[in-house]
Amino acid sequence: MKARETRKGGPKIIGLTGYIGMGKSTTARMFGALGCPVFDADAAVHTLYAKGGRAVPIIRAVFPDAVRDGAVDRKRLGDHIRADPLNLKVLESFVHPWVGDMRARFLTQAKIDGAKAVVFDIPLLFETGADTQVDATVVVTAPAAVQHARVMGRAGMTDALFAMILSKQMPDAEKRKRADYIIETDKGLDAARARVEEILAKILG
Predict the structure, then answer these.
(1) Domain 12-204 part of CATH 3.40.50.720
(2) Which residues of the chain fall short of a pLDDT of 70?
């Protein structure tokens, strides 16, 4: 595991991660309800892919059919990535640094606003090395059967697509091994909320 960066001043940074269907977004909202500004990495990517977004011109140049009405068609882009995994590496080579820039601006604003803690909601927290830039890592988890039931209830989800998403991330067991804190989300919202409160108190304390 890489050593974490040494930071002086500013809010505590909580790195939140977990597989699709584990309850990460719900958990992030719980931290937000306790006064922690949340940076959503997925939302940042959506901004880059939206009409007028920074990533649109480059993606249009490489995959013209993946841009429609001035915005990136994520389904069509996904087809290109599945056809050749190398395309994902190329895409990440410029998208990840841009998301990093957006995250840095978010943190600067949080400092100005006097936030005591912020949350970086990053699906690929460990895979991208972003865990070295936080003060504590939190992994949300749930049994595989619960996860599968949640994910397959989403519109447009298939077993093949689910398998592809899982293949891009390290195993849940490895994420939990690396975590400073774990939140089990199959025990109900009240239990998860209590765990979030407990973790935040420890981090700030």
Answers:
(1) no
(2) 1-8
